Structure formats: C-alpha cells, structure tokens
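Trying the structure run again after the queue cleared.
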Amino acid sequence: MSITKSAYRRDAPGAGSWDNLDESHRVWADEMNKGTARPPRRAAFAFVFVTVLLDMLAIGIIIPVLPKLVVDFLGGDTGEAARVYGLFGTVWALMQFAFSPIQGALSDRFGRRPVIVISNVGLGLDYVVMALAPSVYWLFAGRVISGITAASISTSYAYVADVTPPEERAARFGLLGAGFGIGFVLGPAVGGLTGAIDPRLPFWIAAGLSLTNALYGFFVLPESLPPERRAPFAWRRANPVGALALLRSQALIGLASVNFLGNLAHAALPSVTVLYMMYRYGWSERTVGLTMACVGIASILVQGGVIRPAVKQFGERRALVIGLAFGVAGFAVFGLAPTGPLFGLGIPLMALWGLANPSAQGLMSRRIGPHEQGQLQGANASLMGVANLIGPGLFTLTFAFAIATTREWSVPGAPFLLAAMLLGLAIVVAVRVTKAG
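Done. Tokens:
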C-alpha cells in the first residue's frame, strides 16, 4: 500500500504539496510506504476509552463528599473550609503543572501503558489515604499525591494519537471527551448516594476503581508506542519550560494559546456557576444538581455524536472556530439571562463549544512526530495547570466584585461575560494561526 497526496484531507496543512505535509502526516505516510507502520487499531482505542471512563468515574465519585469532609474536619466552619478547599485545588493544579511534562516524557521513553498503570496505582493509593485520613493535613497530602500521579488523561491523548491516523484524531479526541462526560455525570451521582451512607465510602469505591483500572491496564491494555518510535528521556524536555519548548512553530504556539484561553475561560464554570445559580435565580441544591446533569448529558451528546460529522463536514480549522463561537454565545447567555429558563438556553450552546478542544488537539498533533506526542500532551497539561491556577481566583474575585453591596449597580453575570471575552480573543488567535497557505 502506498500513501500519496490524494490520501490526505483537503484541510490538512500543505495538502497541495507533499513536501509541505505536516510532520505527523509525513511520518505516518513514510512508515506506511515502508511497511513499518502499525495499522490503526480500533480495539486499542476501545481499551483506552474504558481506562479514561473508569478514571473519570473515580474522580467524579469524590466530588460531592470531599468538601463536606473538609468542613467536618474544620468544625463546621464553612468559610475556613472554602479557603482550605481552594488551597487544595491550587496545589493540585501546581502539581499537574510541574509533573505532567515528566509523565509525558516518560511515556515517550517507556511507552504509554506503564505510565497509565502507575498513574492509576498512585491515584488508588491517594484515595486510600483520604479514606483513612484522620485530619485535614492528610487530605492535603492526598491532593498532592493526586496532582503528581494524575497522568492518565494527558497520556491517554498521546495513546490515541499513536493508534489513530492524523485526519481522524479530532473525532477520537471527542470520543474521549464523551468518556470524561459520562464519568462526571455518573460519578457525582454515585458519590452522593454512597456518601449519604458513609462519607468515607466514596473514597473506598474510587480507590477500588483506580486499582481495578491499573490491573486492567497491566493485563488488558495493549501498548500503543512501539520501541522504534520512542524517544530518549531528557530532563530538558521533562519540565514545564522544556516541554513548552516543543511549541516551536508559530502555529503550535498559537494553538497552544487557544487551548490556554479556553481552559482559562472554562475555569469560570466550576468556580462560580453554583454560587451564581443560587444567588441570581434562588435555585435549590436539587435544581442545581439537575441542571449540572443536563450540562453533562448535553456535553456527552456533542462529544460522542456531533464532533466526527462536524469535523468531516467543516474540517478541523473551521470546527475549531465554530466551537469557540458557540462557547462565546453560551457564556453570553449564562451571563445575561435574567431568569432560570433563559439560562437553560445556554446549555446546548455551551455543549457545542466541545467542538473546539478536539479540533485544536487534532491540529496540534499533526504538526509533530509520533515520538513527541507524549511531550505535546504534557505541555498542554502544564498550560491547563497554569489556567487552573489563575482561573478560580480570577472568576471568584470578579463575581465578588460584581455583586458587592457597596454600589448601586451589580452585574452578577460578569464572570461569564469575562469568559466570553477570553474565548473571543481565542477566536482571533485561531483564525490567524490556522490560515491555509
């Protein structure tokens, strides 16, 4: 079988010239022509999808009970608990920023499977520590361990890049996003139900899922990166600054900036949405929970059923811009809606924002070789860590300023309007760096 220019999509970078093909396409084609490339493996993708789903279930299960456990340890002081819980999130993001490049470089050197297995063992032990925690300091230690070992997400993206042709990666990344969504819809529900029985029980269930996932990875998950495509481990690449050095072209820097702005805007959702719903619409916990479930279901539908046909119809470049535009519209509706039903109109718009990230990931993965996919995902995870360090404080302070009672006016939707502006800037960057030519 010989791969020629005609085999490539029209929207591939340099599609009209074999010499100008992006790095990922060129390496893939050369290996196929030489007979050394492994064919795409649908079964391998199914394996890693299960890995991600179990991982997200474990994370989602502890969401409803961890804040309550912190409150209990602090004698019921909700204000102090909020500050401590915010510190937990900051430390977790900081560990991700520091250690994701190391894990990405390790996966490029030793393969994806051992990193995923070790990650899940680490997460399982973290949940055991939190299940047994006698004080808030033990919970803090658990968050540090979790931030260090939570590598399976970025490594899973590298795994998908290994087993998927470049032109199909955006759709596969979208399916992984559906796995995230399922985990975050089912996980909190299971955590809430079991936490009502015993607040420690969800941690034991999460530990069991993570350790089962480690066994699954060890005995079932096939390796995706053959030895001949691995890269030597080097500390200059295995640190946040060194990993970002991979973003050496204007297009990669621009697409990474788009991802960063998107992650920063996304931080508005977990930071202020629940407070906003209760403050502006007077919703109960039950109504908030049902609304969040609707958000998760809409996201699953888009990630699992819309991304593939959308990318096929529009190409990755236009799908990226269209997704970002839906995100701007969704945030605008959230920020401006005077009533709860009008707020609900923004949910499908926000779900369609899900077109953007898989398209950006697909465009980025095309521009590097197979031996650098892990480093790329480590760099992306580091940027996400920076966004998660900045975002919560940015949006909570914006919300507090916008509803302050010391002024005659208030704009409670200000955090969402700020997020819409960030995505608008991302559109400008995306259009500039993805121009054909």
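The chain has one domain: 21-33+40-433. Worth checking whether this holds up in the mutant runs.
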